[in-house]
Design brief:
With about 170 residues, the chain is of the alpha/beta class. It is built from three helices and six strands.
């Protein structure tokens, strides 16, 4: 019985090793930048929200995501073949969990932005009118939740950056 199970497990592992690479599956964000873009200059996005300091946080998160994927990227630079520009359109906060008294105990912050990638001549290679990043955080009724919200904004900026990078590098 154990031999049959071990044989089936080994066969399944070999089959998966052969099929998965052949079906075109790849990890998210592991593709390449569009149309020969070899380096990415990320501009600090215009911030239409009331959250001061969010725009540089988003730009930095996009660069971190790009560099982690092996790309040449920097904030506010020149001399790279692609320029990524964006606009933070809204930041919204919504209550997602309440206690028995009706007080919020968990909230979700959502950053909505638009981005476009242009080549050295200014031709648009990629754009998305709506990219979002979200994060949930705990709220203590009656207490100041500013620090928790600010930490969640940082996480939402990272989520937004991941979604931008996936959009830039996926080809369907």
């Amino acid at each position: 019985m154990k031999r049959v199970f071990a044989w089936k497990a080994a066969a399944a592992a070999v089959l998966a090793a052969v099929i998965i690479p052949g079906c075109g599956y790849q990890f998210s964000g592991s593709g390449s930048l569009p149309d020969g873009v070899t380096g990415l200059c990320v501009a600090v996005p215009e911030n239409r929200s009331s959250d001061i300091g969010l725009a540089p946080m988003v730009a930095s998160a996009v660069v971190t995501e790009a560099v982690a994927a092996g790309a040449d990227a920097a904030v506010g630079c020149t001399g790279r073949s692609g320029s990524l520009m964006g606009e933070i359109r809204t930041v919204s906060t919504s209550t997602i969990t309440r206690n028995s008294d009706g007080d919020g105990t968990e909230e979700r912050v959502t950053i909505t932005a638009s981005f476009r990638l242009a080549d050295e001549d200014g031709a648009v290679l990629w754009q998305r009118a709506s990219v979002t990043g979200t994060e949930t955080y705990s709220v203590t009724p009656g207490a100041d939740s500013t620090a928790a919200r600010n930490a969640a904004l940082g996480e939402a900026a990272e989520d937004l950056a991941e979604n931008v990078w996936v959009g830039l590098t996926q080809r369907f």
